[in-house]
Amino acid sequence: MNPPPEFLPLSNGTSVPWAEVPAWPVDDLVTATSAALERGGRLCAWFGVPGAAGTQLMAVLAFDAENTLAVGRSTPVKQGYSSLTPQHPQAHLFEREVWEQHGLEPAGHPWLKPVRQPAVNHPAMGEFFRVAGGEIHEVSVGPVHAGIIEPGHFRFQCNGEEVLHLEIALGYQHRGLEAPLAGGPDRTTMSRMETIAGDTTIGHATAYAMVLEALTGAEAPLRAQWLRAIALELERLANHTGDLGALAGDVAFQPTSAACGKIRGDFLNLTALLCGNRFGRGLIRPGGCRHDLETARAAQLAARLQTALTDVDRAAEWLWDSNSVRGRFELVGTVTTDQAAALGLVGVAARASGLVRDVRFDHPAGWHRFAPVPVAVWPGGDVFARARVRWLEMQRSVQFITEQLATPAEGERFAAPGAPAGDTLAVALVEGWRGELCHVAVTGPDGKFRRYKITDPSFHNWAGLALAMRGQAVSDFPICNKSFNLSYCGFDL
Amino acid sequence: MFIPDTIVNRLRHGCQTMAFPAGPPPALPDRHGGALRVDAAKCATDCAACVPVCPTRAIVRPPGEPVVLDLGKCIFCAECVTACPSQAITQTKDHRLAVRRREDLRLGPPGAEEVRLAAALDEKLKALFGRSLRLRQVSAGGCNACEADVNVLNTIGWDLGRFGIQFVASPRHADGLLITGPVSHNMRLALEKTYAAVPAPKLVIATGACAIAGGPFTGLPQVCDGAAAVVPVDLFIPGCPPHPLTILDGLLRLLGKLA
Asked: How far is residue B89's CA from residue B91's CA, in Å, rounded to a whole number?
């Protein structure tokens, strides 16, 4: 047997001519991908690129230890291919998605069913996995939940209070935003990128801007990269603070819950100080940023950041000091390191299972090339570990912003981008607050998008929540769910 | 030791709930801009510089007619403010945006330069809901930003409960729905069922550009372009997302709690 063909290496935030992306018969692509995953690679994206001769499958891989990405594609596929999932569970949803979008069947996939495809006024669900037995009962939750949160459906197979299996069915938030990106960019594109997942506006907007800048061959000015890096950490701080508060709330620990609810707003208001919008809308554009951080504004940001840190520091200390909180957080919802690696978890969930995995560190692009961020890892894989990783990251985010404010990048904040190159592939990864965001664009001869693929960290991580619930009580679901705090709309697109 | 520490901290901070509406409202961020104002009379003849820059196609100017900006579709990016050569579109810094009728969000012609703010409920409904309003929130394709800034109203700084307004876990316990998102087709059935489960008389509040007219997703085949396509809407709160102050203003205005 021939050795598997070689993928084309590339760096985060760069582009290559489409013609240079190696193309093999689909069986060879599957073999090569399998071998790459075997030797420690990670699947960032696996999707179809439609064309006149048929759909081409595209693999974007990350070799974190080698700080490199790699791409490869198939020649047009007519019917199907041999599923990667039995050997590499991290491919399971990607293969379902490709099947749903392009009709290419992954032969041997153990659980092939729709991801978010519409039926009549609700998502097509398919059959749910059921555990048989006279003692077994099923608990069905959602799509509309009890709180002010997004919709999704959870189906628990239980024996008494014990959850034997959880299946998560999403798709309710499907706005169909990805397919119409083809033919762009146009005036609607940026506002859609900013609302893929509203709590990750800075992350997704940065990834999109990086893709477009890679296609035009001109980086954003350093000043803009510096601003984006600061805004990304402010987004992380607000969301992590909210999550610590929500976790405290779910175990009825009011002091931290009440304090963090307010402090989260203080962090959101710092993003609003930058651009007027609490979620960072209107800040990032291809070519740079729309607003600057002048000296007086930066000083105000630094001072308010310290106040918020002092407040959240105190609120977090109460949480860690409380035996009743630790009693609820520890050894609940455990995902082992091996499980996390097999599922391809990213972000907080991966690092809380002991995986050293962070785009800012592994694949630095933009300002992170000059200002590295240490990776916050905690072993254990339980709710406590996921809370703890958030806390470590918050401290480092404040430190990062403080250091950057002390040494600002000079120059312009914006340089109008040129036209995107035709027949080119561009890849951008960003470490959003939940984890890795992956944006991939393929342009046609006219420089317009032929295909634009978005992978939110939630796409990798929902299966982690399902696994974390095995053997837990139904009543553990709220804290397990909050400890992941995944996006519904980021998944549903 | 968290117990004495939390008590001491609590005493030190005192009450953290804002004085508004008895006192002044919290300041909007200086770059927020607030509501928009459109003076169509200032438009140069044949100028349509604002039309192509709008990401949600909220601005139209048919030949020979005055410009019209639909604040329901607007995501407040202010690209039009920058593009306008004659200062016909300006920002007012006003946080108040909620209206009762969809057409009250169409700005431009003389007499309609700004939004026509929401009137309070009639006396009968005010008697029913004025002191106690229970809402069920339904996110139907929302991106989680509107949801987050609705949630903020329940934090100690805003303390929505002091107005008798509460978000409840079941539509059976609710007096109305607060809807976010453009209403994805995949959420349509769930929204219809939730609406049906709320006992009459009931209110519907569409929060954010998506719930009013589809927002950034306007025209996509998988969405309904807003809640009004599925249920009757009693209050529209524009924004992307609306600032918490704008949402609170809308709720209080509806209940007749603002002078």
From this structure: 7
Superfamily for domain range A193-447: Cytochrome-c3 Hydrogenase, chain B (1.10.645.10)
Residue A345 near residue A355 (C-beta atoms within 8 A): yes
**Chain A residue whose CA is closest to B135:** A148
Domain positions in chain A? 8-107, 193-447
Mean pLDDT computed over B107-134: 94
Tell me which residue has tokens 């701080």: A237
Q: What is the CATH number of domain B123-254?
A: 3.40.50.12280
Nearest to A71 by CA among A492, A424, A344: A424
pLDDT digit string, tens, across residues A265-308? 999 999 999 999 999 999 999 999 999 999 999 999 999 999 99
CA distance A401 to chain B (A): 20
**pLDDT tier for residue B248 given thresholds of 50, 70 and 90:** very high
User: CA-to-CA distance for B143 and B125, rounded, in angstroms?
Assistant: 31
Kindly list the residues from chain A whose CB atom is less than 8 angstroms away from the CB atom of residue B247: none
DSSP letters, A5-26, are PPPEEE-TTEEEEGGGS-EE-H
Please tell me the predicted confidence (pLDDT) of residue A4. 59
pLDDT category, A400, cuts 50, 70, 90? Answer: very high
Domain boundaries, given as residue ranges, for chain B: 123-254
Residue type, B230: V
- Rounded CA separation B109/A443 (Å): 43
Q: Does B225 touch chain A (CB under 8 A)?
A: no
How many angstroms separate the Cα of A170 from the Cα of each of A113, A142, A179, A467, A486?
12, 10, 18, 16, 12
Around A393, how many Cα atoms within 13 Å sit in the side-chain half-sphere? 35
Picking from B1, B2, B159 by the largest number of A CB atoms within 10 A of its own CB, the best residue to mutate is B2
Q: How far is CA B226 from the centre of its chain?
A: 13
Report DSSP letters for A34-73, one per residue.
HHHHHTT-EEEEEEEE--TT-BEEEEEEEEGGGTEEEEEE
Cα–Cα dist A255/A312, whole Å:
11
Mean of pLDDT over chain A: 95
For residue A414, what are the β-bridge partners? A288
Q: Any idea which of A119-128, A291-300, A423-432, B184-193 has the lowest mean pLDDT?
A: A119-128
- Which whole-number Å values give the CA distances from B54 to B59, B89, B211, in the listed order? 7, 12, 18
- Taking the C-alpha atoms of residue B62 and residue B212, their distance in angstroms, rounded to an integer, is 23
Residue B204 CB burial class (10 angstroms; 0-12, 13-18, ≥19): buried
Structure confidence at residue B2 (pLDDT): 60
Cβ pairs A/B, distance under 8 A: 188
Quote the minimal CA–CA distance from A172 to chain B in Å.
5
The structure tokens 């996110």 sit at B139
Q: Which site among B3, B5, B6 would you substitute to test the A interface, given the most A Cβ atoms closer than 10 Å to its Cβ?
A: B6
